Amino acid sequence: MSRIGKMPIPLSNQAKVEIEDKLIRVSGPKGTLEQEISEQVTVKVDEGILSVQRINDTKTARAHHGLYRMLISNMVEGVTKGFTRKLEIAGVGYRAEMKSDLLALTLGYSHMIYFKAPDEIKIEVPDQVTILISGIDKALVGQVAAKIRSFRKPEPYRGKGIKYEGEVIRRKEGKAAGK
Questions:
Q1: What's 83-164's CATH class?
Q2: Could you give the dihedral angle defined by the CA atoms of residues 92, 96, 99 and 103, in that order, rounded to the nearest 10 degrees?
Q3: pTM score of the predicted model
Q4: pLDDT per position as a tens digit, 117-156
Q5: In CATH, which of 3.40.50.10940, 2.30.30.40, 3.90.930.12, 3.40.250.10 is domain 9-80?
Q6: Is 20 exposed, middle or buried (0-12, 13-18, 19+ CB in 10 A)?
Q7: Pairing of strands 113-116, 102-106
Q8: CATH 3.90.930.12 in the chain, residues?
Q9: Edge-to-edge strands of the sheet including 102-106?
């Protein structure tokens, strides 16, 4: 039995779950999310607790068991609390700012980089070296954060670039002095 898949998902009184055939819809104060469910698993709601069971013991059913349990759990958490990723910018002259609905990044290139986030994602820039990405879909928040980070990944010699909050950059030693 999947250790993740067998764990029940507690539903708060804020989250509402609707199951229609193989489509699950979770709605809450922050919005609504939908997910299509595999034929290998079934979803049941009993007295504020949602559970996911697999139909048989095949390899794909076992894999889908834990996967769909986590997807549904993330949906419930997203519509009630939401998800946030924080990016930090390091480097002389590197900065970020919001220009209307575009994120403008100055990252040492000869041009500025403008990024338009999807409608479901909210980007905030509290100061020039911090970017906050928030939304209800965990996968989309992570994907947007990864896209912004890819504009200038942290380099190992000076640590300049865009990194996730708390990410540790392994630093390398520079070239040794000649004899």
A1: alpha beta
A2: 130
A3: 0.88
A4: 999 999 999 999 999 999 999 999 999 999 999 999 999 9
A5: 3.90.930.12
A6: exposed
A7: antiparallel
A8: 9-80, 83-164
A9: 95-99, 102-106, 113-116
Residues facing 42 on adjacent strands: 53
- The residue written with tokens 């000649």 in the block is 178
Please count the other Cβ atoms lying within 10 Å of the Cβ belonging to residue 111. 7
> What amino acid is encoded at 57 in this protein?
D
Give yes or no for a contact between 91 and 160, defined as CB atoms under 8 angstroms apart.
yes
Q: Contact, 37 vs 43, CB < 8 A?
A: yes
DSSP output for 36-90: E--TTEEEEEETTEEEEEESS-SHHHHHHHHHHHHHHHHHHHHHHT-EEEEEEEE
